[in-house]
Amino acid sequence: MRTLLRSSLRHLAARRAHYSDASKVKRHLLSRIYQPGNRWMENSPEIQAKSNEPSSKSQRLLYKAGLIRPASPGCFHYLPHTVRSMEKLILVIDRAMQEVGGQKIDMPTLCSAALWRQSGRWDLVGTELLCLTDRHNREYCLGPTHEEAVTDLVGTEGGISYKQLPLLLYQITRKFRDEKRPCFGLLRGREFYMKDMYTFDINEEAAYQTYNNVCDAYSNIFSTLDLKHVKVQADTGNIGGKMSHEFHLPASIGEDRLLVCGTCDFAANVETLHPDEENCPSCRGQLTESKGIEIGHTFYLGTKYSHIFNAVCIDAENKPVVAEMGCYGIGVSRLLAASLEVLSTEEDLHWPNLIAPYQICLIPPKKGSKEMAASFVAEELYDDICTIPCMRNEAVLDDRVHLTIGKRVMEAHLLGYPYVIVIGKKALESPPMFEVQNHRTGEVQFLSKEGVLSFIQDVPVI
Ligand SMILES: [Zn+2]
């Protein structure tokens, strides 16, 4: 009797300890996450009028899942799941940029018209600029890129010492472009997130080295996200410069036409070739056409801007040398949408796993169902998952137990969590078994609690 009592007391103490641990866990409950429904679509004459216009898969699925909402043409509210994913994507990009020596800065959105007139781009870019005037009659544009601003910043500093070279400055901020016809949701907006980097070197050779390093970093970012991409030779457009490349995700919805060589690794945007070109200019192999969504663009600028704004490097002999520059963009919100575009099915979102809003969605039994006795096991499993350090904030509990398991599983797959764990009938067995669904492969396996925890330990997270 005494031993029995002692052992049950010990058991109780252990349980209490478990709960005091668990109380420290901040639960991510789906019922608490702001994810408005789609009633706005029914009430929006503008959306209805546009329902015949082409839309994109990512746009349709993001609307359906309640993850973004249009505010005005080409401008969107990013809702909590989308922001989580964006923040992870930014982390991936930050790491890659800092790996090649990038230093993060943050420049004003309001860009002085005077600087843009000095570079000649005020009129060149023209109607694509969103412009405004302040109370003192000073003119600005809402920055689409920051070549003028950053070169002026560096230029007024009197020169970069050769000891500081190469200098790589970048930012991830909102950018603006007055698109005539914004479309495809986050793929072609008027207000969007962009990573823009600007580099300064003392001579061409060093600048080409920097250019190649940043291009390699771009390829690493897309590979980290498991995205098939092509790097193509591109036109320098209104940014200017001597050499340029674009990075594309091949997709039928893409607005750029690419020619890719089947023999060597030559690839180019059609714009840069003669209209009748059928053979690869480097190996004469057959070129095939495909379509791509542009997600990154790099430019070797030379001294185009540094000359105008007097950005110089100071060499070892203390002499000023006009800086050789490069600029490098990644459309961050576009990359997010483009990856959804190429990975998703018609029915369900698929994110690059690393940047999915949450890695895991747990679905406990429906209230009032036979399986309801397993609710307790579900919460315990959730809290145990959260004690794995890398999973602390990566699991969401779908506590909307008034809904059937089936309905919630369907929604979980629409949202695209990489792993969905269902706490159903088998959770009542001894030991309890849990159904783990792999969203990408469709694979389903039944695991014990220990099995789930060891499986989850190996899920890669950022
Ligand atoms: Zn070739």
TrEMBL record:
The keyword 4Fe-4S does not apply. GO terms for molecular function: ATP binding; proline-tRNA ligase activity. Its EC number is 6.1.1.15. One of its GO terms (cellular component) is mitochondrial matrix. Residues 87-352 form the Aminoacyl-transfer RNA synthetases class-II family profile domain. Its main location: mitochondrion. It comes from the Eukaryota. It is found in: Mitochondrion matrix. Pfam families: HGTP_anticodon, tRNA-synt_2b. It catalyses: tRNA(Pro) + L-proline + ATP = L-prolyl-tRNA(Pro) + AMP + diphosphate. GO terms for biological process: prolyl-tRNA aminoacylation. Keywords: Aminoacyl-tRNA synthetase, ATP-binding, Ligase, Mitochondrion, Nucleotide-binding, Protein biosynthesis, Transit peptide. The keyword Mitochondrion applies. Belongs to the class-II aminoacyl-tRNA synthetase family. Mitochondrial aminoacyl-tRNA synthetase that catalyzes the specific attachment of the proline amino acid (aa) to the homologous transfer RNA (tRNA), further participating in protein synthesis. The reaction occurs in a two steps: proline is first activated by ATP to form Pro-AMP and then transferred to the acceptor end of tRNA(Pro). This is Probable proline--tRNA ligase, mitochondrial.
